[in-house]
Specification:
By secondary structure, this protein is an alpha+beta fold. Helix content is 28%, strand content 27%. Strands 1, 2, 3, 4, 5 and 6 form a six-stranded mixed sheet that branches. A four-stranded antiparallel sheet has the order 8-9-7-10, with helices on one face.
Length: 294
């Protein structure tokens, strides 16, 4: 548990991969019904929260080009402060490692870590459900990061159930171009009738769920997606690369026999602006490590 009188917290906010993404229907209000498995990975931003005597939320080293009203960590802190009525203040610093616009959930993870960390620093003692309800106002993926474990996700993202996954390494490539999620889900060619699966079905035959229903549309809208998929196929033959979420990052599972040293060398030759990394799956959001014994 967090030590009494702690005044500063450094939290690692992990990215996540969608091991698959199926669209199984659509609600009358237009929202799509999804099924996915969210896998936490050790590609992390570093969030530092420091208590200050002033009754204010102070953001230092802000991200260039991101207005304060669009900064998710600031919005998360304000949301929690307004909800709780806490008179305390905080200084927030964020070191971005997860590429912005990559579709890896970095912003949502940072927001979740802000809620988790300030809940501890301000001694609010709010439970995960309350934090998740607040987090949903900031983004659909925030509750998952507050949940803090790998999950089988359904509905519009609100149904989250813990799932046990093997520890695996992944190759992740961001081709330096984002995709507007709305442009994919509004596309008339998007598959919307994938047959539902169960957790047991996925665990019994994970290879049957290695598809992303958004991928074909995304690759048409954003040619870089296909280029990144092709790059992985050439670098790691037989790896069955796929897109994560609504893109534009793509990934592949790395079998134990893969030569990581050779792969690191290949990553040095990525097209200009692309970002690639070998990552390992996590079982728990490390943002909880300093503040919880669960």
């Amino acid at each position: 548990m967090i030590k009494p009188h702690t005044e500063i917290l450094e939290l690692h906010s992990p990215a996540k991969l969608n091991l698959f993404l199926h669209i199984i229907g659509r609600r009358s209000d237009g929202y799509h019904l999804l099924q996915s498995v969210f896998q936490l990975i050790d590609w992390c931003d570093v969030l530092t929260l420091k208590l200050i005597p002033e009754n204010e939320i102070r953001r230092i080293n802000p991200i260039s080009g991101v207005a304060p009203e669009d900064d998710l960590v600031v919005r998360a802190a304000k949301l929690l402060k307004d909800f709780s009525g806490c008179p305390g203040g905080v200084e927030i610093d964020l070191k971005k490692e997860i590429p912005m616009g990559a579709g890896l959930g970095g912003g949502s993870s940072d927001a979740a870590s802000t809620l988790i960390g300030l809940n501890a620093l301000w001694n609010l003692n709010l439970d995960k459900q309350t934090l998740s309800t607040l987090g949903l106002k900031l983004g659909a993926d925030v509750p998952f990061f507050i949940f803090g474990k790998n999950a089988f996700v359904e509905g519009i993202g609100e149904k989250i159930e813990e799932i046990s996954l093997p520890t695996q390494d992944f190759l992740v490539i961001f081709p330096n171009r984002g995709i507007a999620t709305a442009s994919i889900f509004q596309d008339p060619q998007l598959t919307r009738d994938h047959a539902p699966i169960t957790i047991d079905g996925f665990l019994a035959s994970p290879q049957l769920a290695q598809t992303n229903d958004c991928q074909a549309v995304a690759a048409r809208i954003c040619p870089e997606v296909k280029q990144a998929l092709d790059w992985i196929s050439q670098a790691v033959p037989g790896s069955a690369p796929r897109m994560s979420g609504s893109g534009s990052s793509v990934f592949a599972v790395l079998e134990p026999k893969i030569d990581h040293a050779n792969l690191h060398n290949l990553l040095q030759k990525l097209p200009e602006g692309w970002v690639g990394r070998i990552v390992r799956g996590l079982n728990k959001n490390p943002a909880y490590n300093l503040i919880s014994s669960e």
